[in-house]
């Protein structure tokens, strides 16, 4: 795809001005790193605060008295009892329980739900919503209309509270309408780095002014997609299309925690989402493979796609995400392994350039999450 | 110490007093790669020109370092095991990769000189 065909976020010109190295990502021309570089950007986010442009992600509003009930038919998550001012992690499943996309759902109140979906999936997600629940609620894509910024790191709250003091009272996964620089924004206390921080939905026309105001604060640096990936990997967070896809169920992806209690086999509103039978059967009977954390025992990074073998050299899985963790100070990975090998500390080997690199099955997150829970 | 020569794969070569040749990657290459976190260095053995002798891993990706000429690797830079960031900090000095004995010493002079390499970089930038 040539650069001319790539889409641009409302912050594109700012990225160029800041000296970003741009790469194609999900059809957008996006900053992979700024002059600071991935390592320092990563560490800056863990130490202070990083500003990420995630405007390529899809924002969708659902409106109507039946919106929550309708959305529940597509996700294994409790939406009906999602409190006003709260956000929840969810995933769209297909008829076999495979994951079509993962998303965030927030309850704005007044029968309004606000969704954030992955950039690469947003058109198909919109079509999926329209096809299945289009007759039950109003579905409004905000793709062009709104930008999305993430302010992440231990200083994020101090910085954002300078613009809106009330955000300091929010706790992890709370969601609020907040005026920033006089503009109506949606703010959630959440993110994709394992750090405390906020995600800010802002009208596209006001995005650059807000980004510039945040970058003017001494704690804040612009952070690219490179560090976003190493931060989320250290936090043990899944990347759609890599760590899960239509061939993996929430059980295989080790996302059982995200299936709300009322939607489970013994819950008050059991099932009722696509592929529920298969998901419940897997939950009870077990799965043949599962996503686990993997820690290379040498300095060699182990990348996505690398085969994983047992001591006898038999293939028992593969790496779905892998790289180097700047905070961890070494390589780290996630992979799908035959269930016989998923116990913590099980020794397995990745094949990297024809050589066996020893790995240990490891707990996740690799770096402790530091969400603010009040 | 002779002047540097370069390959189109962004490696530099310097012929030492004993006729052996030291190899590293250029400032342009390290900048394009980003933060280097691991270098898999070659074995002390002969490689054919173009063989992937070493691998340099940045935060994001793995890239091959190719043998610039037929020859035998005599020594690798042991500092890169514990300090791969030297490739970023001092690519033409402390960040060298390996030293080899070329099969044909005269072949080194036929590689790109500084002017030709600078033109290559400029052409890349303009492309």
From TrEMBL, chain A:
Source domain of life: Bacteria
Keyword Transferase: yes
One GO cellular component term noted in the UniProt record for this chain: glycine cleavage complex
Keyword Transferase: yes
GO MF annotation list: aminomethyltransferase activity; transaminase activity
Ranges for domain Aminomethyltransferase C-terminal: 289-367
Keywords of this entry: Aminotransferase, Transferase
Signal peptide start and end residues: none
Transmembrane segments: none
Domain called GCVT N-terminal: residue spans: 11-261
Binding site for substrate: 199
One GO process term, biological-process aspect: glycine catabolic process
Catalyzed reactions per annotation: N(6)-[(R)-S(8)-aminomethyldihydrolipoyl]-L-lysyl-[protein] + (6S)-5,6,7,8-tetrahydrofolate = N(6)-[(R)-dihydrolipoyl]-L-lysyl-[protein] + (6R)-5,10-methylene-5,6,7,8-tetrahydrofolate + NH4(+)
Family membership noted in the UniProt record: Belongs to the GcvT family.
Protein name as it appears in the record: aminomethyltransferase
TrEMBL record, chain B:
Modified residue annotations for N6-lipoyllysine: 60
Lipoyl-binding domain boundaries: 20-101
Keyword hit for tRNA-binding: no
Cofactor detail note: Binds 1 lipoyl cofactor covalently.
GO biological process terms on file: glycine decarboxylation via glycine cleavage system; protein lipoylation
Cited PROSITE patterns: BIOTINYL_LIPOYL
TM region(s), chain numbering: none
CDD domains reported for this sequence: GCS_H
Gene Ontology CC terms: cytosol; glycine cleavage complex
Keywords, alphabetical: Lipoyl
Names of required cofactors: (R)-lipoate
Family: Belongs to the GcvH family.
HAMAP family in the record: GcvH
Record's subunit section: The glycine cleavage system is composed of four proteins: P, T, L and H.
Record's function text: The glycine cleavage system catalyzes the degradation of glycine. The H protein shuttles the methylamine group of glycine from the P protein to the T protein.
Name listed for the protein in its UniProt record: Glycine cleavage system H protein
Organism: Pseudomonas frederiksbergensis
